[in-house]
Structures are given as structure tokens and as C-alpha cells.
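Hi,

Apologies if this is the wrong queue. I'm a grad student, and the batch job for Methyltransferase domain protein from Candidatus Nitrosarchaeum limnium BG20 produced an output file that my downstream script rejects. I'm not sure whether the problem is my script or the file. Here is the sequence I used:
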Amino acid sequence: MDTVSQIFDKWAKNGRDELMEKEHWKNVIKFLKTVSFDKPFSFLDVGCGNGWVVRKISESNHCKKAIGIDKSKNMILQANTKKKNKTEKYINTDIESLNDKVKFDFVFSMESLYYVDSIDVALKKIYKLLKPGGKFFCGTDFYSDNKATIKWSNMMKVQMHLLSKKEWVEKFKNTGFEVKTKHIKDLKNKKKWKREFGTLFITGEKAERQSSN
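Support response: The file is valid. Your script probably expects a header line. Output copied below for reference.
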């Protein structure tokens, strides 16, 4: 088991998974409200933790299936205990190992993509997993423009890829995505960085028609 899985296994046992849910809930829900879920769709959450985003998404009348994956076995156990309906499914795996034969309309990731061995490899896999016209939403508080959070990697004592907003955009573009960014801020939060920088969301859209080149 790698160090990241070990850390999140411990967090799932000591209740920190619920703290993460509470920390991110406001900005994530605010972002998701800007997304149109007005027709039948499938949804994948990469690094789903205890499944809180999957549970929220699965409440949509148009949600056909919502799958959450996480490297932490204990996080998946927690997600299954909180399961609310039949459209939810949780799998103990990482993005690199996930079968890419099943395609999704939307892929989501909050505070997890920077833990992977290679962001480029992970992005290519996510691109494969998306249907033409599908979208990948990547949320992070850990980016170099936000000076208050760059100490997190030393605190966590694990590999965390620290990129700037510009570098994130470049990696998405190099993968083939059309890219948009949005900062979701919590203007009433006590923490200055949450008011001034907030969560960076990078949206990558896969073209409707793929080039034959």
C-alpha cells in the first residue's frame, strides 16, 4: 500500500473524511450549480473519499449512474455505508487502473489529482474515459498562485504535484481539452486565501468530433 492510501485509510477511520466533506462542500456545490445536468448523464468522481459528491449528484433525476473511485479501501467502505440509492457505485481503485471501456459524460475530481504519479498520464486516461463532448471538472485549493496552501506538501509528507494555474491549463490543453477556469471564493470565510483565491476549478471539454490524425 502506498503512503497516500495509508494516510486516507487513517482519515476514514478517525472521521477526517467528514471534515474534508465539510471543508469543501460549500465551494463544490457552488461550482456544481453552474453545470447543466439537464439531460441523462453518467458521472465519475476520481478520489471520491466518503462519496459525498457522488451522493449529491445521484440525487439528480437525470443521473443514470454515479461512480466513485478511491485508492483508500477505508474511504470506499465509508462511502458504501452512506450509500443512498441504486445509481451509486464505489470502487477501490486508482484512475490509472480503471477500465476505460465504460465512458462517462462527466468526470469530477476534488483535491485528488495532484497525488497521482503522473498528472499527464492521469489526464490522458480521463480524456479516454469521457464521451465526445464530455467534461472533466478538476478542483484544487493546492496551486502555486495560492501561497497559503503550498506548505501542504511538507505537512502531508507525501508527493503532491504543485502547479500554477497556468501550468494546469497547459496540461489540460496538451491532453486535447478545450479549457476554462473558474475561481469559487468563500467571501465570508475567516481564512484570507479562501476569500481572495478560493478553489480553482479547471474544466476540460472533450471535442464532439475527434480528429482522425
